[in-house]
Predict the structure.
Amino acid sequence: MAAARSLSSAPLRAIRKLGAVALFLLTILQSAPYALRRPRLISAQVQNAGVLSLVIIMTSGFFVGMVVGLQGYDAFSRLRQEDLLGAAAALSLIKELGPVVTALLFAGRAGTALTAEIGLMRATDQLSAMEVMAIDPIGRIVAPRFLGGLIAVPFLTAIFNCVGILGAYFVGVQMMGVDNGAFWSQMQEYVSSEDIREGIIKSMVFGVAASLVAVFEGYTADRTAEGVGLATTRTVVITSVLVLVLDYMITSFLL
Amino acid sequence: MPATEPGPFLIETDDLRFSVGGRRIFDGLSLRVARGTVTAIMGPSGTGKTTLLRLITGQIRPESGSLKVDGREVAKLDRAELFELRRHMGMLFQNSALLTGDSVFDNVAFPLREHTRLPERLIRTIVLSKLQTVGLRGAARLMPSELSGGMARRVALARAMVLDPELLLYDEPFSGLDPISMGMIMRLIRRNNDILGVTSILVSHDVEEVSQIADYCFVMSGGKVIGEGTPAELQAMDSPLIRQFMSGSADGPVPFHYPAAPYRDDLLGGGR
């Protein structure tokens, strides 16, 4: 009895959940060949999770870039180094802001939708019906959504970065009068391929994390309206914290 | 279902035991379903009728005892064998469980597209013929959200039948339907059986409807079979529990009230 009670304590619950997520990932990977044989299922999910997130990603990217432009200009003008704005904006977007903010937006826009969709499919027996029809719901429903998210996030990040740099350019060069040539040439000078690689690695890891959390929470949601609602909330909360923690870990590892 | 030697019974359970969260659902359940019959499993709500269907389809496994489908022990099948077995089953879910993102046509076509490599033209022919059977060929382009409950259940039935299964499982097929839809579903269940030779298992507590179409009935209570026979035989039985169930009396061996402290104590006890 005491053992049973201690099993329900918070740290153990967290560890058990981590184990469950890991096993779930294995199950998805086992079922992935089914989805990979049906690329149309995956491309539909790239459309769902990725293309439909474009507007929010581009709008946010532009405003984040503009803020970076403003703050960067303010800081560099105190040092009379305004010409460095292009390089600083690009580095902060490519290495940090792009991957992190994109993953957070993805969790809010696409992750929640995935969780709610899978959770409701489960609650309404659609996944059980597939099982009885001898169709693996993990392969047919979960794996394509996971893979779709995985593919979409790095591309969304790249688009976020490009639009963000344009936002910084718009504020720095067009509004504040930083030299156009200096803006781009300093960027070219200081942004190395390692910086870009760091951004790509982060966006891929965040893509896995955000998609996995979303499908896991959906698949394990309580089969009630309240359960699906709570699972959706958990997707946003867990993904956000996880992305920030992973961001620190990857940064400390790569720098 | 490639049986070694097809016996007269498609489904046999012997001393089946199963619990959920410490609550015993089946406590030595033994029943046999003959091939080609419409067999009803009846009993009050909460007696594990749906659980029995989930055991038959292998979605859950019993703690002990035996459950054979076509002579094969379901709990001992590996995943591939289980999927092979399920291809010969169709199941009608209580809430229809249609894929909400797909049209009626695509829902019925779904098992065909997943399991066969038939050309789309042939799939269309098969799907339309199944929809014609349930009277909904005209609704092929509708989405599940545009269907009434009765229509959704008929679409789900067309989907369950589309691979021409040998075994059809119906989970509460009559609950929540208007009399006309109910009549249609009853006719379809009987027709599948008479024309296609399907074995049907019907889980239900609608005694009147079941009595009209079932060949054989099992009445379950307390995790066991407490009576079996043709509907007429059950009606004539003496057991008070079966009589209460068949006649639908509110009180009897199964009490109307959930176990509770005396009403008076509860009211005067002050919100304990």
